Automatic annotation (TrEMBL):
Residues 8-78 form the GapR-like DNA-binding domain. Keywords: Coiled coil. InterPro entries: GapR-like (IPR018753), GapR-like_DNA-bd (IPR046367). Belongs to the UPF0335 family. GO terms for molecular function: DNA binding. The lineage of its organism: Bacteria, Pseudomonadati, Pseudomonadota, Alphaproteobacteria, Sphingomonadales. The keyword Plastid does not apply. Residues 11-72 form a coiled coil. This is UPF0335 protein FMM06_02140. It comes from Glacieibacterium frigidum. Pfam families: GapR_DNA-bd.
Length: 81
């Protein structure tokens, strides 16, 4: 095989892997959407659930810092009694 053929084959394999992963990602996104719909159907607030998921992804120190900053802003705007 020539260098161009090897490079083209390698590129094709990378592209096909990416396409498969994109399909997997779409399937996972659809599954997540279904779980949120199910939760909503049982009475849970999905907007709040999404916020909790975002918070749980954060490191503890980053989460505490974000919550403290949010409280500071809420206090400044009179949203905390």
């Amino acid at each position: 095989m020539s260098t161009e053929n090897v490079s083209a084959e390698q590129l094709r394999l990378f592209i096909e892997r990416i396409e498969r992963l994109e399909e997997d990602k779409k399937a996972l996104a659809d599954d997540i959407k279904d779980v949120y719909a199910e939760a909503k159907g049982t009475g849970f607030d999905t907007k709040t659930m999404r916020a909790i998921v975002r918070l749980r992804k954060m490191e503890k120190a980053a989460r505490q810092e974000a919550e403290a900053l949010l409280d500071t802003y809420k206090t400044a705007l009179g949203l905390i009694d």
